[in-house]
Amino acid sequence: MVNFESIADLVELAGKLGKSLADVVRQWEMERSECSAAFLQEEMQRRLVVMREAATKGSTLKEKSFSGLVGGDAYRLTQCDLFVGPVVGKAAIYAMAVSEVNAGMGKIVAGPTAGSCGVLPGAILAVADFLKCDDEILIQGLFTAAGVGEVVARNATVSGAMGGCQAECGTAAAMAAAAVTEMLGGTPEQASDAVALALKNMLGLVCDPVAGLVEVPCVKRNAFAAVHSLVAAQMALAGIKSVIPADEVIEAMYRIGLQIPCELRETSKGGLAMTPTAQAIAERFAKVT
């Protein structure tokens, strides 16, 4: 039976079986859930459809969220010249679009959380546009991402309340980096390096939502994390290795999360949430409610 506890396990299994990380994760899920490959394919296709619909809808939204804090920014990006390039620009657009849909109570896929829901679709959909690939490649990427998310959830945390935003957007960036690496033909070892490169450079990222809402700075942070994942994948595909292995980076992220003061772990009692502007926003909302 296929089983894994770490990124190293996934890479080792891929080598032994002569498969990609995506195929290893798919086989593991088949055995674990006792579901057929066809059923799992359909389920992942459904998630891809939701991601794509949220990215499309959010890219055209001009309305603000109920709070008035976010909304319309993904659309604004679509209306300007993307000097950063089409893939990077689209990743930012799609990531922010999905996150804005979430802020508007729309349907999204939490990957790994609602607060980081734009990162993975932002990255893989932008790359898919560039590659002009079919859904099968995207679904493979989603299985790869799922395996990385499973390892982080088992050995650390994906909760902002427990580990800060490094656990949410950081993990999402790691998942996206691995997915993109395999989508572009990278090896399991390169995907592992992409995980490490993406996550280790987001260590210490705090969770400080203004007025307790998953909007500021969350929506724009999704865009930055999606772009971050592309850089990690590009580096890994170039043969750049992480000195610290992926599993050790995940462990470090967990320890750092426990060391982050509670004020900076989704309580809105520190960081940006305590700035004068944020406090004024919170006070205004308190009067309304």
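the 2nd protein, sequnce then structure:
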Amino acid sequence: MIIKFKTRKNIYSAKQLVSYILTDKGKIQNPFEAPIILQNINRLELQTMHKDFLDNYKYQPTRKGSTAMYHEILAISKNDREFVTKKMLQDMIENYIQFRGLQNSLVIAKSHDMQHIHFMISSNELRSKKRLRMSHKEMKKLLLDFELWHKEKYPQLVNSIVHTVKKPQIYRDIAKEDRNHRREKLYQMKMRNPSKISQKELVSQRVKLLMQEVGNFAQLKAFITQDDDLEIYSYRGKIRGVLYKERKYRFSTLQVTKEKLLQLSNHQKRLEELSLIKEMHKATRDKQMELGRKGF
């Protein structure tokens, strides 16, 4: 079962959170109808219940940026909703409090639409300085322990089992992640300073200008060789792009069109063919001249 952990830093948002959990933005007609838990709550009026959290927060040592409340959610798969009952939800609420170790804290818990259970939890125990925060290790243990419990007690909720199933090994596409990271950095830079030109754009402009002056790869190689900043980037014997400040830029990355590259490639191929024909003719002439000198 998916458990979402959220925090609230502002204690004065307690009234809004109480209202949301008990009424679901007005969708719940009777806020105090079961399944529900009101633990260590003294005020039973919807408009004043949040004051219990304000009063208890005073026991917590003042610290900048500290958590004022926890908002945690149990999410049952929508594909399991037909098996969910109010009695089951009430049982889950009570057991989650036990697994989470909230027996001495302020808790308001209510189910929404027979699928989600929302918990509003004080950040410190009742009239105590003791905090209720969890480490990542404790969170992971809670996820596994609670799922093992509901897996055994409510095996019909097969689609809500997510943490205790063996997951297929996921292979990360590092190259793709790197490309996405670079795109995001470029996008953020453009958002901050739309007029600023990135290094990739600068290289792209220079290469495109060179492309306008050359007719084949041999000329392109000669022009790039003369440039102090650019170098040829080759892969498996073919020119793939340029090097600029020790960084590789493929022609495709620089937005050089495939048509232009094909044009250069065809011209280069034709030049090589003509050169080969020229060499063959020269070899034939040289052989004929040699035979003439020998009197044949």
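The chain has a mean pLDDT of 85. Residues 195-285 form one domain.
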